[in-house]
Amino acid sequence: MAYAYYLYDTSGRPRPAGLTAAPIMPMNTPTSLSTESVYKIQLMPLLSALRSIHPRHIPVLLLLACTHHTLGDYQTSIALSFEALSIDPECVEAMSNLGTTYKALGREDDAFEWWMKALRIRPTYWDAMDNILGKLFDVAQNTPDNNRRREAYSQALRVCESVIGQVVQDDGRLRIPVRTDEMHRLQRMFFTTATLRTLLPPNGILDAMQDYWRAIELVLRPPQPYGDDECYNMRDLLVATCVAGYIISSASDGPVPDAIVESLSLEGQPPFSELIHRPPLDLFRVVHASGERALNALLHIGGGVFPTLLLLPDQIMRLQMVLFPFSLGVAPAICTRNPHTGHLDLPHESMRQKTNLMTSTVLLTLAKRLQDESLANLRLPGLGGPVNVSVSLVLLLYYVAVSISPSPSTYNNLGILLCALSSSRDMPRTHGQNLLNGPALARFYYQAGLQLDPEHPHLLTNLGSLLKDQGRVEEAIELYMKAIRRKPDFDIALANLGNAVKDLGRSWDAIEYYRRAISLNPDLPEATCGLVNSLSAICDWRGRGSVPNEMGVDENGGIIMPSQTGTPGWITKMIEICERQIDAAYMQTVGIMQKSATKEEWLQVVENAQGRALREDERAHWLECLQRYYDGDDRMRNGINEVGFVIRFMDWAQPRLQRQWYIQAFGKIVSSDEPMFDTSPELERRFLRPVLPANMTSPPVPSVLPFHTFTYPLSLRAARLVAHRNALRISFMAHSQTWLPPHVYRPPPPPLNGKLNIGYVSNDVNDHPLSHLMQSVFELHDRNKFNVFLYTTSPWDGTEYRPRIASRVEYFRDVSTWSARDIIDDISRHNIHILINLGGYTKGARNDIFAARPCPVQMQCMGYAGTLSAGWCDYLLCCIISCPPDMSAAEFWRKNRGKDKEQTHVIFDFDADADPESRSNEWMYTEKFINIPHSFMATDHKQSFREDEGLTVQERAQVPPEELWRNEEKRRATMRRQIFPDLPQDVVIFANFSQVRVCAHSAIFAVWLRILTQVPRSILWLLRFPAAGEEHLLRTARDWAGEEVASRIRFTNVAKKDEHVYRGRVADLFLDTAECNAHTIAADVLWTGTPILTIPKHPHRMCSRVAASMAGATGFGDLMIVENVEEYEHRAVDFARSVKYVDEQDPTGTTIPRGRGELIKLRRNIFLNRDRAPLFDTMRWTRNVEKGYREAWKRWVEGTQYEMSDEWERSEGDVKDSSIIWIPDEDPPEIIIYD
């Protein structure tokens, strides 16, 4: 028979599923004969001979039946199976063979019946079970009838429940023996049952949990028989895994928490702290015996959920040995108990692998299901305690799954989960860092997975993304390329590669990767948004489409005239994606507020922040605002963002709690004559920091970046929410840090003799426009009134800017290698009163520092021309032109106070603090304004760019204006000939030196072309910024205006800073862009006297009003600022037509073209007044800003910063009338008009 089995099994043909025949021993096989020949020539004669000798030998009959089935002789196969049944009516193998053969004949019902008969006789006959389920699943998956599908699944579930009921008792013990090598089949039965329950309403997933638990519990317990004290369950596994994690990491993280040790120290047993050091530790037994004590201790530590454990891969691989030391890390259920020693004997390796794989599959499936957003915060049944769904619970499941069956995909999924975590812990320096957070830990898991499969595309891509986020873009690109070589259709890798290439400044090269990604997945947000950004960066507008009431571009590059509906294209698709991503967040973590705190508990925090009990009207107001989050209202329709509310509430409470602390420690003292100190530990315990709900997940952010909203035609609300959602993410990450103190950061003492400590935080203290503009500001601060701290968060680029600035600041800190904790500790230690953000949402900015709220007053200045829409930014330094007052939420509140109570409560849910999620499109800025006279933009040209004349301010003032102007015209003519030697003097030079991406709105380029058409003797001077934009702009110019106009567009390369500034005088008129103005470049050209023409187009977009702000600060803004595109076009043409030149010889005999006309007059006035203009008066700007700092500090101390506070209610005058800090300019500028 052994040889017969061998011939049957090794003939080269796979046996039909469900036939029962198996080889007993291996032999060498001849391969020259076909399967049919082997069966007919060798196997059949052998079996016939055996049958003649042993006619009632069932194994011979079964093998004969299988052989005839394989050869297609189904009738003979059936007859032989019935013959076997006549000998043994309970021969389940024969029944299963009959079912398989009837299925081959198309007699599905007969097949099903025979499989059911086999299963009734032997519930653990898995082949029959597989066939039955396969049959029912085929019916369910291939029918369009929902009722029939549901019935098929229901029947499959009943079969599973019947088998389980016959095999397993309610307490998990086995009713009948199950072979250890088949334990994984029984696990699969529970797993299948759970899967079926999830497919059947109404409570499928909840009903399925018990089956998932039981599938895992099967392998936790030792071989039967075992006592109640070894009847381990899923709760024991979770608790034991968590405790084991603490034990494993105790060498680096410190001892196991006392609460855990105490909960596991059982009466009559040595303390658990001693058991840890007495291996082997029977952890499961101790945990099981502790009942709910250990679970409750862990939930207390985790704030209501399991603590978040950050374990390294090598620590995870020790997990099974800690959990199952007596079976050397092997699941006890598949071991056998030695009758002589009582110890557990280990199973065969193949058996262990099958069981581990099945157990891991159950754990991973469970983990994946629990990550479903709809299950967030759900109380899990059957765990004997208040265990809610949480990320930390899912993490535990992954840890166990990886420890028993590591695989590349599991490492990858675990890495993805860890990347979303903001928790951190200390780790030994041997790993190269002090602080281990989620993303850093994810890298270890990605690398561990790549050791198993070095070319796993998902691992390569995700590791590449981590490296990209760390600034290691070149390495990331290598990994993305490797992933794509392995999987050319990997859309995410292609999109990520595009992003990385774009980050290197090669947007034009990124386009190919984005398009490939979109061809594979048209709905991939990152690919679409990346493509839009890259195409805009090089002005390739083909296929852009149009939004309502604005010009657009069709697929061929032709103009689409404005319409009320717009035309589909890539810009409209990007907008749709952004809106969809904004709406999706409303369904995140629904119900978290009810599960994390009662309304009374929220009100208690409010009272702590207010420093008193709420009045009845205040209580009613807050309850009405809170009620939205406790009702079952449509979250999406009403814009109800629960996660956003929780984070905003924390950001709202912290500075108010800091103020209450300050008042308790020092009183309402704006400054002091003597040093004051807060030494009361009681205040630390009193002003506790609000904490995030333990089971809250990170808020999602749109794929569109805040900076990109400057040039995209998004609605006011959408642009506000792009910024706000990023602010929420930053706040969440900051509030999640385990190193934060339990209390809010201690407020600084009153400034001694009124001398404020101000701290600037910047990532641009290098050769960067911010440093070009602000390098003297830090030095010009009045050192009698301010101590100046400057924290630079980026590495030095080797240029002269950083050393120069550092030499001017007494407290300069290069914190580019510091952790957030170290930076914040330094800020707190130096008692910074006001912290100024110079980065905003620019690349590399450290907003996480501000989100932790180390300082009472925080604001943003200069670096980012837009709202941060963040609770951790109190003020925005701006001016009346750049930020119209009615765009401020606080001013909007004053304007509408008492008008529409219901609507007001929706928009202003924290006193007078507005909810950015509200549907209102009437306001933009959550920050209060500090209104700087003239312009919010600081410049340094007066100090830094005087080489053109070689005169100091004092020397220049002594030179007659006519001489200054004659010399300037001479310099200008000379430089003009150097740059454009072929250009006649009477040709007007229009110019724009911005990156071509700010021309991303094609409408302004069309205006420029119309201007060129109307001024034949003119050119348009642009920069190759980047060079790839040149061909697209020229092609568009040819298509829209013809070859002649296109030939008058001149491109030059980007120049070094000094050359760039000085050559700006060559242009006659700088044509500004409308969606996002020139910023630093506007200051550069105005310094040389070149007029600009600008439109402050959008009231809500600061970036579209910057140039108007600067133009106004020259004293001649009325000539350079227009209201609309039509006026822009007419003004440019009129200016150009006014220009005339008359040659004149100077005393040396040099011919100088002397300009005449309105445009030349404007240039002359700008140039001659540049040392008087407020725009270039850095000292004036600094003194005015200092007034704003002092007033902001005063309002915080006195409490008038916060509307509806008692102090504000009692106040009068400007503070009550307006939230804006209006800075007076006591020294009016002396602008001289030269005819």
From TrEMBL:
The first-level EC class reads transferase
The residue intervals holding the TPR repeats read 92-125, 457-490, 491-524
Give residue ranges for domain O-GlcNAc transferase C-terminal: 700-888, 980-1142
* SMART domains, alphabetized: TPR
Enzyme Commission identifier(s): 2.4.1.255
* Family as reported in the entry's similarity comment: Belongs to the glycosyltransferase 41 family. O-GlcNAc transferase subfamily.
Query: What's the name of the protein?
Result: protein O-GlcNAc transferase
Organism field: Rhodofomes roseus
